Each structure stands twice: as structure tokens, then as C-alpha cells.
Amino acid sequence: MITFHYLMTDSQLIDSLKEDGQAGFVAIYHRYYKQLLFFISRYVNDTDAAEEIVADVFVKLWSRRLDFHSMDSLRAFLYIVAKNASLNVIRTNRSRGIQEPLSAYEDMLMDDQDVFSDMIYAELIHAIFNEVEKLPEKQREVFNLTFIEDKTVEEIAEQLQISPAAVYTNRSRAISTIKDLLGPKDALTIFAFLTLIDKN
Q1: For 128, how many CA atoms within 13 A lie in the half-sphere containing its CB?
Q2: Is 148 helix (H, G, I), strand (E, B) or coil?
Q3: Distance (Å, rounded) from C-alpha 127 to C-alpha 121?
Q4: Which of 53, 104, 196, 198 could bridge to 85 as Cys pair (CB 3.0-4.6 Å)?
Q5: Roughly what angle, to the nearest 10 degrees, separates helices 112-132 and 22-41?
Q6: Which residues form the RNA polymerase sigma factor 70 region 4 type domain (predicted)?
Q7: Where are the alpha helices (DSSP H) in 47-183?
């Protein structure tokens, strides 16, 4: 079961990837899919393209699955491949004349330190959204629509068929609950959460 692999140590997971193949691969896929999608989406402003990049990253991982000796090297491989694929999409878009601030994104992706920072941020955000899944349904819906889909209060109220006041109430309660859940977490995770909610 996938849950069992989540309980494995990193070295056990690497061994599973090499020896068992599919089971270890599925566990790694579930561990890193959301982080990679978030990481790529910071540069590639197209959900379908970002999802295609993630799929391609894992295809490459499968073809190289026997090459990894530690989770650190595997993790670095995933983000490097994601970075290179994102650059390719940016350059392709530029060649097609798509008007986006592509040069700024390309410059950031070329800077390994910025990529490393975004990698860490993506993984912190993933840790936060693991806590979001523990929220009551309505709070979770409002939180995701606000901070993931970037919808307005009016749009959320219309979509969920609730009043704007109820949107504000559920959002406030969700933020308060997440802060409580993050209480024992490290300072970086809390900082990432505050950065996320400060954007709205």
C-alpha cells in the first residue's frame, strides 16, 4: 500500500524503487507530485503545461530509477529536470511570440540559488496543505479557492452558494485553525504559511 511506503525511511524507499520498482515509484510520485507542480507553476503559467512537465519528470525518473543511491540525489534530480523542462517551455513560448514576462522567469530559473529557494518553498507549502486537508469541508473549500485558485470573495460565495459573510468567516476560521496546527512546526513552515496568506 502507498501509505506503507510513506512510513519508510528514505533509504528503504530508494531500495524499494530499485528492487520493487513500481511500488517505490508510486510512493515517490505521491510524495513529490504536488511540490513539483507548485514549483513549476511559479514559472509556467499554464496548468496543462505544468502537469505535462511533471509527468515527463517522472517518466525520466523511471528510466533512471536504478541510478539513485540516496533520496537527496533523487530529489535534486526531480527539481533539476523540472527546471530544465520549464526553461524549454518558456523558450518555446517566447519563440511563438507569446507576450509574457518570460525573461524574468528565465533569469530566475538560470539562478540555481533561486531554484533551490523555490524548491524549499514548494515543499514547505506542501507541508502546509497537508494540514489544510484536516480542515472541515467548508473551511477547506474556502481556503483552497482563496489561496490556490485566487478567487474573490464574491466568486467564492457564488460558487459555494453561501453569503460573502460566510466566506469571510470560514476563511478566518481556516487560517486560525492552520496556525494552531502549525504551532509545533518549524519556523520556516510558519513563515511560508504567513507569506501565502499575506498575498491575499
Answers
A1: 27
A2: coil
A3: 10
A4: 53
A5: 110
A6: 131-175
A7: 47-63, 71-95, 102-110, 112-132, 137-147, 153-160, 164-181
The values of phi and psi at residue 161, to 5°, are 60, 50
Of 31, 128, 16, 8, nearest to 78 (Cα)? 31
Domain 115-198 annotated CATH 1.10.1740.10: no
Entry field: residues in the chain: 200
Give pLDDT tens digits for 175-198: 888 877 776 655 556 556 666 666
Residue ranges of the chain that CATH labels 1.10.10.10: 115-198
The DSSP 8-state label assigned to residue 79 in this structure reads H
Summarised one tens digit per residue, pLDDT across range 104-152 is 555 555 566 566 666 676 777 777 777 888 889 999 999 888 877 778 9
The CATH number of the structural domain formed by 10-111 is 1.10.1740.10
Q: Is the pLDDT of residue 81 over 50?
A: yes
Reply yes or no on whether the pLDDT at 1 is more than 60: no
